[in-house]
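Figure caption, in words: inputs first, then the predicted bound structure.
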Amino acid sequence: MISHVAYSQIIDNGLEKIKSTNLMHTVNILSSAEFDGRLPGSEGYNKAANFASETFEQLGLIPIGKDGYFQHLKVEYNKIDTPAVLQIFMENKKRTYLHGSNFVLRGFTGSANDTLPVAFCGYGISRPDLSYDDYGKINVNGKIVIVFKSNPSWKLNDETWGNELPREKSRVAYEHGAKGIFFVSLPNDKKPQPLIGSVVHGEGEQLENFPQYHISIETANDFLTRTGLLLSECQQRIDDRKAPFSLLLRTNARIQVVAHYKKEADTKNVIGKIEGTDPKLKEEYLVIGAHLDHVGSPAGLLFPGANDNASGSAGLLGLVEAFQHSQLKPKRSVLFALFTSEEQGLFGSKYFVENLNIDTGKIVAMINLDCIGYGDSIQVGNGKSSPELWSLVRKTDKENLNLMVEETWGNGGADATPFHEKGIPCLYFVSKESYDHLHQTTDTAETLNPKTLEEIVKLAYMTAKEIAEGKYIREEVKNIKE
Ligand SMILES: [Zn+2]
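Bound structure (zinc ion present):
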């Protein structure tokens, strides 16, 4: 419909509806304390899902879930109550640490109420097959272990470390008799990872009485005081020799955590449809998705997730409004999906593609909105896997906004991945350099750039309208070796 005129030259009442004030209003609601960090399984998430489904209804979307706009699924859920205690005891000294400043509880921590000795166990890896074992020469029975959250940047025998995710490291520590684990970021990284809110990644048994903390590098150094070493020196020593260097620290930690774990909690995607107007093309679909969930508020510490991903969720609701107010009705059908449990492992988007009543071969494209409100430029990912679709958005940007950067990537990314894996061309909209506050308590609405948010949503809208018009023909997706 707009091959020779810039989209902004066309009168489209929908485009006029996309305003930063409206989008920021939604971001403020979703990132407020009332929604409690939107952890799947929690009251806060359900409130956010209700808010979204009410908005879908007001805007006249057709419900396509088994329960109205809701598509239910089960996920693991861990409710963490107050208090969150960490104190250090060393000779006659005691120091109390602050949750949020000196440590954060990890999303799948178990409960505890104890005072225990502490040991440092390097990377927390036990790989006898590689002759590498951080637990080989130390007895951690009944102790809390401090381990690096990430894996070494070096390799042994050219083998990768595999899946030593925090969950796996906890299991290894537990099997060696440890009573709890403190993860710490690598002090010698150029920019060590700050304290972050988390949910569990991967599968495994929940260790219900095994506390898991992420402590700051400074806090770890306090625990190391009596060894005369700094954490950075310990890392250096391990990395230089590619050999374990584990230590008993002769300090005690007082810990208290109250967690209630559920193996299967109910959560839901929120899904709706606009039916296409063309008798033939309406059997083809464009999917627009964004994840609604975030990492919650362990022991009352709120992770607002304003950029991640109240911004994308607000963008999606803004797109519904724009589509519904446009006098130019889409020929293809458009599905809108707010996904649950992205943070836990893309469970909502995977469930969506696996449980649709339509043939995924009929989905011509998927647009993902994730972290779209920070900084001042636009990046559109997955261009390497769907170059024709990407050039459509590139052209639309050039003619209208000129804010898109050239860099892109392949193979989907986050909620686009399950679609990409089904052979569906995807575009992943994100604001460039979006991750300064990622999974931190500082990811608040005040840090966002309303102008960027509006521009990304406008670009997504113009692109979506072109796809829905039927101009774009689904291309063969490319798998990229990166
Ligand atoms: Zn996200």
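The chain has two domains: 7-30+275-469, 78-260.
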